[in-house]
Design brief:
- The protein is mainly β.
- It contains four helices and 25 strands.
- A hairpin with a 2-residue loop joins strand 14 and strand 15.
- The longest helix is centred in the last third of the chain and has 12 residues.
- The two termini are 28 Å apart.
- 38% of the residues are buried.
């Protein structure tokens, strides 16, 4: 059975490429857009009161298969997640020329840090380069300082993840404004140029090779049912979690003892 989280199919319609795979009364080709705001929620239903499944960042490509009442239903290109986004968060497609490397990058109304900030772009936001004015890059909606953009892909995803220490836990989040356990790891991996699925169970299946607890080291991913974190060394775990309601560091042994009481023991440890 197809995973609904990453399969653009509903009872009334489905993506054209799914013909012969799913049953639907109507198939549509879809239209590609770019996310035009810093952070946009991806909802499970077309309602502001619905659960946030994930977030889309500025510059992400989103294929729209249906629009109604101000909502667009479609699929994200980066991790294939399907859901509903406000139509107003989408823009005409553009070609990214740079990536945000700062935890959050202000978009100034002019090439001057004293001008109003129009938006805040999270790490991994993809921006067009429409011109330069001194130390600032024109991205269309405004100007971003060049120091907030990455000249090249970074290497150490664990170091990236550590930069989010203390950030609030937010279900479905994947930015400095708040993120969840899989959002933290997906964000860190994306910053070093490695694609990863959105949810914990997806990552556990898709990433790395199993290793023994006795052999754990920096960069290993530790999985539980519905939760995950990354090792900073042989003993310390970094993870966004609902116990601390933040990204926290704690001894793996303590985390294992506490989490086992809630969801059960560690299901696997993977090495990338």
């Amino acid at each position: 059975m197809a995973d609904k989280r990453v399969t653009p199919a509903r009872a009334d319609l489905a993506a054209s490429h799914l013909k012969g795979v799913v049953n639907a009364p109507r198939f549509v080709d879809g239209e590609k857009f770019s996310v035009g705001v810093g952070i946009a929620s991806l909802y499970v239903r077309p309602s502001d009161d619905a659960a946030q499944d994930s977030e889309l960042l500025f510059g992400e490509v989103f294929t729209v298969y249906d629009c109604a009442d101000g909502w667009a239903w479609g699929q994200a290109a980066n991790d294939l997640y399907v859901g509903y986004i406000r139509e107003g968060a989408l823009a005409k497609p553009f070609v990214p020329g740079a990536r945000v490397s700062a935890l959050m990058a202000p978009v100034f109304s002019a090439a001057d840090l004293k001008t109003p900030v129009r938006d805040m772009l999270p790490m991994n936001a993809a921006v067009p380069v429409l011109g330069r004015d001194g130390d600032y890059v024109n991205i269309g909606p405004g100007f971003v300082h060049q120091r907030h953009l990455a000249p090249e892909t970074e290497k150490d995803f664990v170091a990236i993840a550590e930069r989010f220490l203390g950030v609030a836990y937010v279900w479905g989040g994947k930015a400095y404004a708040g993120l969840d356990c899989s959002g933290l790891i997906q964000t860190a991996l994306q910053a070093v140029g490695r694609a990863a699925p959105r949810d914990t169970d997806m990552m556990e299946k898709a990433l790395g090779e199993p290793v023994a607890l006795s052999d754990v080291r920096r960069g290993d991913l530790v999985f539980w049912k519905g939760h995950m974190g990354v090792m900073l060394d042989g003993t310390r775990l970094l993870h966004a979690n609902a116990f601390h309601m933040a990204v926290a560091i704690e001894p793996l042994s303590e985390a294992m003892a506490r989490i086992e009481k809630v969801v059960g023991p560690v299901t696997s440890i993977k090495r990338l």
